[in-house]
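Hey,
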Amino acid sequence: MARYTGPVCRLCRREGTKLYLKGERCTSGKCAFDRRAQVPGQHGDARKKIGEYGMHLREKQKVRRYYGLLEKQFKNYFIMADKKPGMTGENLLVILESRLDNVVYRMGMASSRKEARQLVLHNHFRLNGKKANIPSILVKAGDVISINESSTDSAKIKELLEGVAAAKTPKWLEVAENGTAKVVTLPAREDIDFEINEQLIVEFYSK
């Protein structure tokens, strides 16, 4: 499966904002964005006028990288959102938030979406009591995500469980201390705590 393997801090610098791709490191003094916030590359310090297309592209790239998706995946989600009733931009964000890897991250069971994706791929979670090792599974209201019984003895899972109680979970999730979470309702636009202008993404794909 194709994936980005380059330095992730470079992505934050390119988009001009923290994407929180490295978990706790992003909030520490080691964060590369805090130490060197300019755009990467030889001409990163040069002031460049950004046009309308560039503004739309940067917003799309920012959101795509924030959720850790490839271009084809992201575009497919946009097409899915466009077919749903309601606002396309809001539909897109709800779909992105409903991915299983994002839900595991929101539960407080991972320090980043990349780590959450890896935990899902390694069969550490179950969805409604069934095997769930595909990060792109979309959850729905009423779904229950639990830790696989065979993973409860894992030192890594035990370490992550200790942080669940202190994690700031969104109101659309109910998370127990044993790591079991219930999707109370689908996430709403106001539940997303990252600055996103979804209308720019809609305009980008509408050209």
